[in-house]
């Protein structure tokens, strides 16, 4: 397993910190819409940045301690633990722990056209501090992004971008207030969709899934349709084909075995379904990668 590279710099803090940077040429990446350039974890940070300018977008997540953040020309903002700071490129800013204090910081630097789409969504406001609480799943996402960058492989760098995209989406949900809105996942439906994903390597059984969630199959079908726009069967197949594409990209497992692992007893049916969703056979999909 890849790990963040560890450094020690007493101007930053008394504890070892970990940083990983993009190790491949951006020209080798398939995804140009969002690219991750650096990710780090700085525990026990005591040093401050003054008159700093970041050349890319940066997202800092403070998971311990407290401090401040101040864009040039604006008032200083308090940064307690559980805060997110979205820092725009080209802006002068100061930030860091309060005097005599520390903070624990995850951060990621990124750029690309997709950023403007996220900004136009209205969920993010660059240069402000958002208090979202401690989300342990987000810390794991930062660690996973770091592992991808540490590999030095182009496909892993692309995966880092996808992980960041999913992190940004989860952040938008947290920033979208606490009341559910039309089309927004409620906890019950989210649990069902997660459960479908967890059963991707088994033959799908709608009755068993409904029973495990203490509901009728008709209710299960209605909830999935309402949330995703797909019938239950269509959604399950979509999840399975998405996993099949991941296995085709990242492994040498034979096509028929992939179908079998995903719960398809009939290789011909798996082949037809894959072509229906992708427009090409599974073999052709793998060859063009």
Automatic annotation (TrEMBL):
Residues 186-288 form the HTH araC/xylS-type domain. SUPFAM superfamilies: Homeodomain-like, Regulatory protein AraC. Gene3D superfamilies: Homeodomain-like, Regulatory protein AraC. The keyword Transcription regulation applies. GO terms for molecular function: DNA-binding transcription factor activity; sequence-specific DNA binding. The keyword Nucleotide-binding does not apply. Pfam families: AraC_binding, HTH_18. It comes from the Bacteria. Keywords: DNA-binding, Transcription, Transcription regulation. This is Helix-turn-helix domain-containing protein.
């Amino acid at each position: 397993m890849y790990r963040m590279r560890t450094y020690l710099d007493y101007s930053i803090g008394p504890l070892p910190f970990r940083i990983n940077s993009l190790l491949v040429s951006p020209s080798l990446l398939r995804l140009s819409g969002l690219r991750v350039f650096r990710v780090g974890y700085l525990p026990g940070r005591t040093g401050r940045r003054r008159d700093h300018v970041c050349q890319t977008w940066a997202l800092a997540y403070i998971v311990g301690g407290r401090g401040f953040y101040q864009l040039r020309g604006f008032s200083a903002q308090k940064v307690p633990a559980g805060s997110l700071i979205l820092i725009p490129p080209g802006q002068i800013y100061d930030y860091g722990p309060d005097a005599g204090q520390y903070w624990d910081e995850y951060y990621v630097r990124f750029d690309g056209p997709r950023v403007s789409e996220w900004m136009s969504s209205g969920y993010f406001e660059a240069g402000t501090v958002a208090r979202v609480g401690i989300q342990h799943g987000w810390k794991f996402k930062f660690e996973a992004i770091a592992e991808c960058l540490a590999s030095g492989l182009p496909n892993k760098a692309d995966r880092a971008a996808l992980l960041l995209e999913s992190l940004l989406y989860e952040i938008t949900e947290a920033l979208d207030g606490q009341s559910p809105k039309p089309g927004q996942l409620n906890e019950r439906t989210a649990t069902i969709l997660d459960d479908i994903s967890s059963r991707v390597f088994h033959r799908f059984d709608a009755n068993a899934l409904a029973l495990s969630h203490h509901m009728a199959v008709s209710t299960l079908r209605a909830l999935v349709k309402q949330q995703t726009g797909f019938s239950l069967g269509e959604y399950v197949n979509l999840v399975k084909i998405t996993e099949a594409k991941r296995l085709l990209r990242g492994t040498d497992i034979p096509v028929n075995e992939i179908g079998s692992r995903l719960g398809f007893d009939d290789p011909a049916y798996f082949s037809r379904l894959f072509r229906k969703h992708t427009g090409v056979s599974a073999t052709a999909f793998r060859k063009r990668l």
